[in-house]
Amino acid sequence: MRPFLIAPSILSADFARLGEDVDAVLNAGADVVHFDVMDNHYVPNLTIGPMVCQALRNYGVTADIDVHLMVKPVDRIIPDFAAAGASIITFHPEASEHVDRTLQLIKESGCKAGLVFNPATPLHYLDHVMDKLDVILLMSVNPGFGGQSFIPSTFDKLRQVRKLIDDSGYDIRLQVDGGVKVDNIAEIAAAGADMFVAGSAIFNKPDYKAVIDEMRAELASVEA
Ligand SMILES: O=C(CO)[C@@H](O)[C@H](O)COP(=O)(O)O
Ligand SMILES: [Fe+2]
Protein backbone atom coordinates (compact mmCIF):
# COMPACT_ATOMS: atom_id res chain seq x y z
CA MET A 1 0.00 0.00 0.00
CA ARG A 2 1.16 3.57 -0.60
CA PRO A 3 2.28 5.85 2.26
CA PHE A 4 -0.50 6.85 4.60
CA LEU A 5 -1.68 10.45 4.26
CA ILE A 6 -3.07 12.57 7.10
CA ALA A 7 -5.51 15.26 5.97
CA PRO A 8 -6.70 17.63 8.71
CA SER A 9 -10.22 18.93 8.11
CA ILE A 10 -10.15 22.70 8.41
CA LEU A 11 -13.81 22.63 9.42
CA SER A 12 -12.43 22.52 12.97
CA ALA A 13 -9.72 25.16 12.36
CA ASP A 14 -9.93 28.73 13.61
CA PHE A 15 -11.64 30.53 10.70
CA ALA A 16 -10.68 33.92 12.13
CA ARG A 17 -7.01 33.08 11.50
CA LEU A 18 -7.30 30.34 8.90
CA GLY A 19 -4.03 30.90 7.01
CA GLU A 20 -1.96 30.72 10.19
CA ASP A 21 -3.83 27.68 11.44
CA VAL A 22 -3.39 25.83 8.12
CA ASP A 23 0.32 26.68 8.13
CA ALA A 24 0.57 25.43 11.70
CA VAL A 25 -1.01 22.08 10.93
CA LEU A 26 1.16 21.60 7.83
CA ASN A 27 4.28 22.50 9.81
CA ALA A 28 3.14 19.94 12.39
CA GLY A 29 3.43 17.23 9.73
CA ALA A 30 0.05 17.06 7.97
CA ASP A 31 0.16 15.94 4.33
CA VAL A 32 -2.97 17.42 2.77
CA VAL A 33 -5.52 20.15 3.63
CA HIS A 34 -9.08 18.77 3.73
CA PHE A 35 -11.50 21.56 2.76
CA ASP A 36 -15.18 20.91 3.60
CA VAL A 37 -17.71 22.75 1.45
CA MET A 38 -21.30 22.72 2.79
CA ASP A 39 -24.25 24.47 1.15
CA ASN A 40 -27.09 24.34 3.73
CA HIS A 41 -29.05 22.36 1.12
CA TYR A 42 -27.37 19.02 0.53
CA VAL A 43 -26.21 19.14 4.16
CA PRO A 44 -27.59 21.23 7.05
CA ASN A 45 -24.59 23.50 7.47
CA LEU A 46 -22.88 26.31 5.55
CA THR A 47 -19.13 26.74 5.27
CA ILE A 48 -16.65 28.08 2.76
CA GLY A 49 -16.27 28.39 -1.00
CA PRO A 50 -13.69 28.97 -3.76
CA MET A 51 -12.71 32.44 -2.50
CA VAL A 52 -11.39 30.92 0.70
CA CYS A 53 -9.49 28.26 -1.25
CA GLN A 54 -7.93 31.03 -3.36
CA ALA A 55 -7.14 33.00 -0.20
CA LEU A 56 -5.19 30.04 1.20
CA ARG A 57 -3.21 29.80 -2.05
CA ASN A 58 -2.56 33.56 -1.95
CA TYR A 59 -1.42 33.19 1.65
CA GLY A 60 1.23 30.76 0.42
CA VAL A 61 -0.23 27.32 1.09
CA THR A 62 1.39 24.93 -1.43
CA ALA A 63 0.18 21.59 -0.02
CA ASP A 64 -2.54 19.72 -1.86
CA ILE A 65 -6.01 21.06 -1.08
CA ASP A 66 -8.59 18.27 -1.00
CA VAL A 67 -12.01 19.83 -1.61
CA HIS A 68 -14.89 17.74 -0.23
CA LEU A 69 -18.01 19.09 -1.91
CA MET A 70 -21.21 18.60 0.09
CA VAL A 71 -23.26 20.67 -2.34
CA LYS A 72 -26.13 20.09 -4.73
CA PRO A 73 -26.07 20.74 -7.63
CA VAL A 74 -22.35 20.13 -7.86
CA ASP A 75 -21.17 20.79 -11.44
CA ARG A 76 -21.33 24.55 -11.58
CA ILE A 77 -18.91 25.08 -8.67
CA ILE A 78 -16.20 22.72 -9.98
CA PRO A 79 -14.44 25.08 -12.45
CA ASP A 80 -14.39 27.78 -9.75
CA PHE A 81 -12.64 25.47 -7.28
CA ALA A 82 -10.17 24.33 -9.93
CA ALA A 83 -9.34 27.97 -10.73
CA ALA A 84 -9.01 28.69 -6.99
CA GLY A 85 -6.26 26.09 -6.56
CA ALA A 86 -8.03 22.86 -5.58
CA SER A 87 -5.88 19.75 -6.08
CA ILE A 88 -8.49 17.04 -5.45
CA ILE A 89 -12.27 17.45 -5.78
CA THR A 90 -14.64 14.85 -4.35
CA PHE A 91 -18.44 14.87 -4.48
CA HIS A 92 -21.40 12.78 -3.37
CA PRO A 93 -22.86 10.80 -6.30
CA GLU A 94 -26.46 11.36 -5.21
CA ALA A 95 -25.80 15.12 -5.54
CA SER A 96 -25.01 14.78 -9.25
CA GLU A 97 -27.47 14.03 -12.08
CA HIS A 98 -24.65 12.58 -14.20
CA VAL A 99 -21.87 11.06 -12.15
CA ASP A 100 -19.65 10.20 -15.11
CA ARG A 101 -19.99 13.73 -16.52
CA THR A 102 -19.12 15.32 -13.18
CA LEU A 103 -16.02 13.13 -12.87
CA GLN A 104 -14.97 14.14 -16.39
CA LEU A 105 -15.55 17.79 -15.57
CA ILE A 106 -13.23 17.55 -12.56
CA LYS A 107 -10.52 15.82 -14.61
CA GLU A 108 -10.84 18.32 -17.47
CA SER A 109 -10.43 21.10 -14.90
CA GLY A 110 -7.04 19.62 -14.03
CA CYS A 111 -7.89 18.16 -10.62
CA LYS A 112 -7.91 14.66 -9.20
CA ALA A 113 -11.43 13.29 -8.80
CA GLY A 114 -13.25 11.23 -6.23
CA LEU A 115 -16.63 9.93 -5.10
CA VAL A 116 -17.87 10.21 -1.51
CA PHE A 117 -20.15 7.65 0.12
CA ASN A 118 -22.30 8.49 3.13
CA PRO A 119 -22.68 5.70 5.70
CA ALA A 120 -25.90 4.48 4.00
CA THR A 121 -24.99 5.24 0.37
CA PRO A 122 -24.68 2.01 -1.63
CA LEU A 123 -21.42 1.21 -3.37
CA HIS A 124 -23.03 0.51 -6.75
CA TYR A 125 -22.17 4.07 -7.78
CA LEU A 126 -18.65 2.71 -8.25
CA ASP A 127 -19.81 0.49 -11.11
CA HIS A 128 -18.45 1.67 -14.45
CA VAL A 129 -16.41 4.61 -13.11
CA MET A 130 -13.44 2.98 -11.35
CA ASP A 131 -11.17 4.02 -14.25
CA LYS A 132 -12.01 7.69 -13.61
CA LEU A 133 -11.34 7.76 -9.86
CA ASP A 134 -8.28 8.95 -7.98
CA VAL A 135 -9.98 8.81 -4.58
CA ILE A 136 -12.86 6.95 -2.94
CA LEU A 137 -13.98 8.65 0.27
CA LEU A 138 -16.03 6.71 2.79
CA MET A 139 -17.84 8.91 5.28
CA SER A 140 -17.74 7.40 8.75
CA VAL A 141 -20.27 9.95 10.02
CA ASN A 142 -23.26 11.56 8.34
CA PRO A 143 -21.98 14.66 6.59
CA GLY A 144 -22.55 18.18 7.87
CA PHE A 145 -20.63 18.55 11.11
CA GLY A 146 -17.30 17.90 12.73
CA GLY A 147 -16.91 16.22 16.10
CA GLN A 148 -19.24 13.24 15.54
CA SER A 149 -18.50 9.63 16.50
CA PHE A 150 -17.11 7.11 14.02
CA ILE A 151 -19.86 4.75 12.75
CA PRO A 152 -18.55 1.15 13.15
CA SER A 153 -20.27 -0.24 10.00
CA THR A 154 -17.62 1.74 8.09
CA PHE A 155 -15.09 -1.01 8.84
CA ASP A 156 -16.95 -3.55 6.68
CA LYS A 157 -17.42 -1.01 3.92
CA LEU A 158 -13.70 -0.17 4.02
CA ARG A 159 -12.79 -3.84 3.61
CA GLN A 160 -15.21 -4.16 0.67
CA VAL A 161 -13.84 -1.08 -1.09
CA ARG A 162 -10.21 -2.05 -0.41
CA LYS A 163 -10.90 -5.34 -2.22
CA LEU A 164 -12.63 -3.56 -5.10
CA ILE A 165 -9.65 -1.23 -5.51
CA ASP A 166 -7.08 -4.01 -5.30
CA ASP A 167 -9.03 -6.19 -7.75
CA SER A 168 -9.42 -3.27 -10.17
CA GLY A 169 -5.68 -2.64 -10.43
CA TYR A 170 -6.32 1.13 -10.54
CA ASP A 171 -4.31 3.61 -8.52
CA ILE A 172 -7.06 4.88 -6.17
CA ARG A 173 -6.70 6.31 -2.68
CA LEU A 174 -9.15 5.06 -0.03
CA GLN A 175 -9.99 7.96 2.24
CA VAL A 176 -12.04 7.91 5.43
CA ASP A 177 -13.68 10.97 6.98
CA GLY A 178 -15.44 11.43 10.30
CA GLY A 179 -14.58 10.56 13.88
CA VAL A 180 -10.99 9.56 13.08
CA LYS A 181 -8.87 9.73 16.26
CA VAL A 182 -5.55 8.50 17.61
CA ASP A 183 -7.29 5.55 19.26
CA ASN A 184 -9.07 4.22 16.15
CA ILE A 185 -6.76 5.20 13.27
CA ALA A 186 -4.81 1.91 13.33
CA GLU A 187 -7.99 -0.18 13.10
CA ILE A 188 -9.23 2.04 10.25
CA ALA A 189 -5.93 1.56 8.41
CA ALA A 190 -6.03 -2.19 8.99
CA ALA A 191 -9.47 -2.23 7.32
CA GLY A 192 -7.95 -0.71 4.19
CA ALA A 193 -7.89 3.09 4.40
CA ASP A 194 -4.74 4.93 3.31
CA MET A 195 -5.85 8.57 3.68
CA PHE A 196 -7.24 9.85 6.96
CA VAL A 197 -9.29 13.00 7.43
CA ALA A 198 -9.31 14.25 11.01
CA GLY A 199 -10.77 17.58 12.13
CA SER A 200 -11.63 17.83 15.80
CA ALA A 201 -9.04 15.21 16.83
CA ILE A 202 -6.30 17.56 15.63
CA PHE A 203 -7.62 21.13 15.81
CA ASN A 204 -9.24 20.74 19.23
CA LYS A 205 -5.86 19.91 20.78
CA PRO A 206 -3.29 22.62 21.58
CA ASP A 207 -0.32 20.68 20.13
CA TYR A 208 -1.06 19.60 16.54
CA LYS A 209 2.35 17.96 16.13
CA ALA A 210 1.83 15.77 19.17
CA VAL A 211 -1.48 14.45 17.76
CA ILE A 212 -0.12 13.89 14.25
CA ASP A 213 2.97 12.15 15.67
CA GLU A 214 0.73 9.88 17.75
CA MET A 215 -1.36 9.09 14.66
CA ARG A 216 1.77 8.24 12.67
CA ALA A 217 3.02 6.02 15.49
CA GLU A 218 -0.30 4.15 15.43
CA LEU A 219 -0.09 3.85 11.64
CA ALA A 220 3.47 2.55 11.82
CA SER A 221 2.18 -0.47 13.71
CA VAL A 222 -0.10 -1.25 10.74
CA GLU A 223 2.56 -0.67 8.08
CA ALA A 224 4.99 -3.04 9.86
O1 LIG B 1 -16.87 16.16 5.94
C1 LIG B 1 -16.87 16.22 7.15
C2 LIG B 1 -18.16 16.36 7.92
O2 LIG B 1 -19.20 16.40 7.03
C3 LIG B 1 -15.60 16.07 7.86
O3 LIG B 1 -14.48 16.35 7.06
C4 LIG B 1 -15.48 16.58 9.27
O4 LIG B 1 -14.97 17.87 9.31
C5 LIG B 1 -14.60 15.67 10.06
O5 LIG B 1 -14.53 16.14 11.35
P1 LIG B 1 -14.15 15.20 12.58
O6 LIG B 1 -15.19 14.10 12.65
O7 LIG B 1 -12.78 14.64 12.28
O8 LIG B 1 -14.17 16.11 13.74
FE1 LIG C 1 -14.97 16.13 4.85
TrEMBL record:
BP terms from Gene Ontology: pentose catabolic process; pentose-phosphate shunt
A molecular function (GO) term: metal ion binding
Pathway: Carbohydrate degradation
InterPro entries reported for this sequence: Aldolase_TIM, Ribul_P_3_epim, Ribul_P_3_epim-like, RibuloseP-bd_barrel
Catalytic activity: D-ribulose 5-phosphate = D-xylulose 5-phosphate
E.C. number(s) listed in UniProt: 5.1.3.1
Keywords of this entry: Carbohydrate metabolism, Cobalt, Isomerase, Manganese, Metal-binding, Zinc
Binding site for a divalent metal cation: H34, D36, H68, D177
Binding-site residues for substrate, renumbered to this chain: S9, H68, G144, F145, G146, G147, D177, G178, G179, G199, S200
One GO CC term on file: cytoplasm
Cofactor dependency: Zn(2+); Co(2+); Mn(2+); a divalent metal cation
Note accompanying the cofactor annotation: Binds 1 divalent metal cation per subunit.
Annotated active site: D36 (proton acceptor), D177 (proton donor)
UniProt function note: Catalyzes the reversible epimerization of D-ribulose 5-phosphate to D-xylulose 5-phosphate.
Family recorded in the similarity comment: Belongs to the ribulose-phosphate 3-epimerase family.
Protein name stated in the entry: Ribulose-phosphate 3-epimerase
Taxonomic source organism: Shewanella halifaxensis (strain HAW-EB4)
